Amino acid sequence: MSNIIILGAQWGDEGKGKLVDLLSEKFDIVTRYQGGHNAGHTVFIGQKKFVLKLIPSGILRGKRAVIGNGVVLDPAALLEEMTSLEASGIDVAGLLSISNRAHIIFPFHRLVEKASESRSDRTAIGTTSRGIGPCYEDKIARRGIRVADLLDREGFRQLYRVLAEDKQTIAEAFRLEGAIDYAKIRDDYECFADRIRSMVCDTSRLLNQAIQQGKRILFEGAQGTMLDIDHGTYPFVTSSSAAAGGACTGAGVAPTRIHGVIGVSKAYVTRVGSGPFPTEALDEAGERIRRAGNEFGAVTGRPRRCGWFDIPLLRYTSAINGFDSIVITKLDVLDGFPEIKVCTGYRVNGRVTDEIPATARLLEKVEPVYQMLPGWEASTRALVDHRALPDNARRYLDYLSKQVGVEIGCISTGPERNETIILPGSRFEKLIG
Ligand code: GDP
Ligand code: IMO
Ligand code: MG
Prior knowledge:
The structure is a single chain. By secondary structure, this protein is an alpha/beta fold. It has three domains: 4-99 and 200-257, Adenylosuccinate Synthetase, Chain A, domain 1; 103-196, Orthogonal Bundle (Adenylosuccinate Synthetase, subunit A, domain 2); 265-432, Alpha-Beta Complex (Adenylosuccinate Synthetase, Chain A, domain 3). It has 15 helices and 20 strands. The protein has helices at residues 16-24, 75-87, 92-95, 107-117, 132-140, 147-151, 153-173, 182-196, 203-212, 245-251, 284-292, 311-321, 360-365, 391-404, 427-432, and strands spanning 4-8, 29-32, 41-45, 48-52, 64-67, 72-73, 96-99, 103-104, 200-201, 217-220, 260-266, 269-271, 305-307, 309-310, 325-329, 339-348, 351-353, 367-374, 408-412, 420-422. Strands 9-7-5-2-10-1-11-15-19-20 form a ten-stranded mixed β-sheet, sandwiched between helices. Strands 14, 16, 17 and 18 form a four-stranded mixed β-sheet that branches. Helix 4 packs across helix 5. It is globular, with a radius of gyration of 22 Å. Bound molecules: guanosine-5'-diphosphate, 6-O-phosphoryl inosine monophosphate (IMO) and magnesium ion. 6-O-phosphoryl inosine monophosphate binds next to helix 5.
């Protein structure tokens, strides 16, 4: 019985939500392990569109959904998402379990983020403004407040007072005094505590007991490997461990209990927010991809930056995550392009390499080396059989797989779960069982 991690191989928005929805039926529990409501995972069920931010996508299929300890939780955002899902008939309170060790986001985290993002002496990261980074800062600084603390009223008041005093000092430095009503926030959060109490437990224990009983767990990554705090394009990253390793620490499940890692990658690349993006297409082609792929942020509505498939980047994220198989999504978006560019290496000081420089400044400077591949005229939209793929689409995929050195086990040809090709005999097929 295999437990699998599914995560983004690029800079997020690769189509993880669709894949998790597709695979959910084969699993008993779906768990998030990092990030917070900065994620936006889109799932179509028939005509109905859901955008999951904090709650694991598996809940839409009636699966037990777990918010792990590695997630940062904004209770107001959670309750809002719950209300909207419950209006669609989903029994969120009955299906959701929240880790007692997850850290809590407070409104002042958003204010601190805003102040930090608007500093004139620093390039803004272009965050989602959800308070994610400042909450993780408090976690690492060992002054954060966790769900279990929130539920313990007396303990909470004490911890809250200290944290609030801390924030007050920062607010004064940023000249934000008066903008934060600490007593109101405390009272609001005490009400939130009562509303989430019944769903809170030790989710690591829940997951490990489920594994012992032979149940299958699907770990749903948020963001993408290039946004990982350690391995991404620092400092233009998110503040959590989005790579596969984060699933163990963020869910409290040992590496020995995980049997496979699946990377999700678009057939091209997108990125939201600032930071280096070697294959960004700032020309007509990039615009065409944005239009065809409807590349606008699921959470913030921002236009996504678009560009060509980047082989060095996928080799890098494959190595870090140990992908068993890659899913290529949005192949249909490239339909009708006469030629498709693929980046095969980076030219740095006249030398071609596939090594990703450690600094954003150096990565900004690399010059991508491109291979032109012929496009395909026919539509791939909604194809479900690999034999129906146009020859050049198959050649394109074979080329990517060979160059990256990992199988492509699944191809997504549209936003709905049935618009998917699963390659027969692939490792992907075996892993999902
Ligand atoms: P996630 O954050 O990784 O779950 O991805 P998002 O939901 O933010 O963005 C992916 C977008 O592409 C969503 O609007 C999906 O509905 C859509 N999508 C996913 N797979 C496909 C596909 O194969 N083809 C097309 N045309 N759209 C897709
Ligand atoms: P999903 O799960 C794409 C980006 C932001 C910004 C950087 C830091 O839908 O793939 P943060 O608010 O996390 O501190 O912002 O990370 N970012 C994402 N980009 N998809 C996401 O999530 C993202 N979550 C954060 O745009 O550049
Ligand atoms: Mg998204």
